[in-house]
Amino acid sequence: MKIIFFTQSNWCIPTIQHFKNIHEVVGVVSRTDQPNSNDFLIEYLKGENIPVFNWENSELEALSSKLSDFQVDVGISFGFSYKIPASIFEIFNEGILNVHFGKLPEFAGPDPLFWAIQNEEKVVTISVHKINEKWDSGELIVEFPIPVFPGEPYGLLASRLSVSFPSKLESYFAGQIQFDKKPIEENLKPKSKPTEENLTIDWKKQRADEVEALVNASNPKYGGAITTFRGNPIKILEVSPADVNITGIFAPGSIVYADPNYGIFVLCTDMKYLRINILQLEGTIISGQKLAAMGVKSYEKLGV
Questions:
Q1: Has residue 210 got a pLDDT over 90?
Q2: How many CB atoms lie within 10 A of CB 301?
Q3: 216 and 174, same structural domain?
Q4: What span, in angstroms and rounded, lies between the C-alpha atoms of 241 and 287?
Q5: What is the pTM of this model?
Q6: In degrees to the nearest 10, what's the CA dihedral of 54, 59, 61, 64?
Q7: Domain containing 72 — which CATH number?
Q8: How far apart are the first and last CA of the chain?
Q9: Distance in angstroms (rounded) separating the CA atoms of residues 214 and 46
């Protein structure tokens, strides 16, 4: 089987490597010049002697002509942010299959993993669909549900999905997985990329598990969940639930305990506590213990 990949993402590398060992990977379509080029991906492809074809909207007719000469069986789009027109996907014998890390059409949009983690979903569904001229629609080919580990951050989940996916797709191609194909209706209200407001912790409203989910969904792609401390913006990259035996009257977002050995503990609106493990401020990533050693005190507040 001849395959051409469409990708700008390192997440596609395990799939490219897997299929390179079994099928013929004719090449990869990516953005090879600024903006939106991925130098690590391009260097990997060069090291594997896989041809790379530059995606340029103004040169799609020439790209279509070039790809048609290879008589490729199927295209696989995986982490590719450009709309692929019919003039290109129609030249593939089996069309182009898009890999989407979210159930369709519910989690249509450019970053389904963020919303799955932020919504505290227990399962992420990898959807593989034959594309048409609309975003995240077409014909659903197969789904692979993958459980989400408790407390799993975005980067770890994405990496795990990327590694587990190739063998699952190959099992489908080999006929070992049966699935009833069905049309995907276009989601007219797809989930957009998170805004700064979406990424900001609301200590007055969000429960401890909601804050933890937001922190996990923001790490590392968005640099952590946003809050403020002493009037300055900071980003929280990792938290964990904690039991705290403390006396006093505290408002949500208050630091109830700070110690260089144990770190910083914050009260949430449901009267549960989170330990701040890793955070970023002024361009520096530090631990909660380190911040406590710098003189943080109880009754100081986050988010003000």
A1: yes
A2: 18
A3: no
A4: 16
A5: 0.93
A6: 0
A7: 3.40.50.170
A8: 58
A9: 37
Domain boundary among 162, 184, 206: 184
- Is the domain of 158 the same as that of 48? yes
Q: Are residues 44 and 177 in the same domain?
A: yes
CB 78 within 8 A of CB 99: yes
What the block records as the tokens of 36 is 């939106």
Q: Locate all alpha helices (DSSP H) within 69-195, ordered by sequence.
A: 86-89, 112-118, 154-173
How far is 162 from 13, CA to CA, in rounded Å?
8
In three-state secondary structure terms, 98 is strand
302 lies in some domain? no
Judge whether 301 lies within some domain.
no
- Residue 152 shares a structural domain with residue 176: yes
Each residue of 157-166: pLDDT tens digit? 999 999 999 9
Strands 225-229 and 232-242: antiparallel
CA atoms within 13 A on the CB side of 268: 21
Q: Answer yes or no: is 176 within a domain.
A: yes
CB atoms within 10 A of CB 78: 24
Segment 42-69, tens digit of pLDDT: 999 999 999 999 999 889 999 999 999 9
281 C-beta neighbours (distance < 10 Å), count: 16
One-letter identity of residue 300:
E
Structure token pair of residue 9: 């993402």
- Helices of type H across 180-278: 196-199, 208-217
Cα 216 to Cα 204: distance, rounded to the nearest angstrom: 19
User: Domain range spanning residue 275?
Assistant: 196-293
Pick the last residue of a domain from 137, 152, 184: 184
Residue of 29, 27, 25, 28 lying closest to 1 (CA atoms): 25
**Amino acid letter, residue 211:** V
Instruction: State the average pLDDT over residues 244-268.
Output: 93
Q: Which residues contact 121 (CB under 8 A, 6 or more apart)?
A: 148
DSSP state of 148: P
**Number of domains within the chain:** 2
